[in-house]
TrEMBL record:
Homodimer. One of its GO terms (biological process) is purine nucleotide biosynthetic process. It catalyses: (6R)-5,10-methenyltetrahydrofolate + H2O = (6R)-10-formyltetrahydrofolate + H(+); (6R)-5,10-methylene-5,6,7,8-tetrahydrofolate + NADP(+) = (6R)-5,10-methenyltetrahydrofolate + NADPH. Signal peptide: none annotated. Pathway: One-carbon metabolism; tetrahydrofolate interconversion. The keyword Oxidoreductase applies. This is Bifunctional protein FolD. GO terms for cellular component: cytosol. The gene is folD. GO terms for molecular function: methenyltetrahydrofolate cyclohydrolase activity; methylenetetrahydrofolate dehydrogenase (NADP+) activity. Transmembrane segments: none annotated. Catalyzes the oxidation of 5,10-methylenetetrahydrofolate to 5,10-methenyltetrahydrofolate and then the hydrolysis of 5,10-methenyltetrahydrofolate to 10-formyltetrahydrofolate.
Amino acid sequence: MLMDGTAAAKRIVDQAAADTAALKADGVTPCLATVLVGSDPASVTYVRMKQNRSAKAGIGSWHVELPEAITTRTLVAALTELSQDPDVHGILLQHPVPPHIDERAAFEAIAPEKDVDGVTMHSFAAMAFGEPGFVSATPGGILRLLDEYEVDLAGKHAVVVGRSPILGKPVGMMLLARDATVTYCHSRTADLASYTRQADILVAAVGKPKFITGDAIKPGAVVIDAGYNPGNIGDVDFAGAVDKASLITPVPGGVGPMTIAVLLEQTVAAAKMAQRRL
Ligand SMILES: Nc1nc(=O)c2c([nH]1)NC[C@@H]1CN(c3ccc(C(=O)N[C@@H](CCC(=O)O)C(=O)O)cc3)C=[N+]21
């Protein structure tokens, strides 16, 4: 059975829109600032999708575009300014930034209370320690989708393929917090399929098109494809996996829309918290 991320995301965004309308009636318009460095076409598309989805929910968006050649210092200054701007409730710095920029330093310039994309050390640590905070958007979306389909995680073997700071690593920690037994695999894992074949829940987050083939999947597994490769091709070979999996996310229409939904939901939550502080 397919896990319909588009439908689940719509429910989350509809709720965010209703909450936004209530906040606006109280005089507060939730506002998400998106920051894009350079003009990579895929990143331009993703940021535009986030803005469009925000606008549809009534959330304001403020877009900052910076040239490819910007320094870390200038990017940090721009993010610090947004962090201090009372009209901005959430900040998204689109990953990846050009290689000459210290991406970690840039992420850390986002104030924790505005880190609606869950990319800072503060947010990661809060998540890892089970304290309140914003979660990384894609992992958050994945957990919401698993809940939507009532996938029982306790005691299940979850195998995460990928260990990136805003996707693989945090999704494993979130599954662990839900009592799954978690195995991390990555590009240096020897005999990867011997691990993935033991996965009750398989999360593919490596960024290699169709990297996970049907023969690497345990019959009945829940397969989450978090890959976003050029041309909307996932990390899972869907045709080979669909008959083996009990539940599987399509690409597009799976994890992608859930990522944006969680981003918007957390933006509205940030605006509510800012209002309470007034
Ligand atoms: N700081 C940061 N946070 C992110 O969350 C982040 C990021 N950087 N960098 C890039 C990746 C990628 N990403 C996607 C979000 C939505 C879709 C999505 O909704 N895709 C549609 C298809 C899109 C289309 O039709 O073109 C779908 O899967 O149905 C895809 C990819 C967020 N990312």
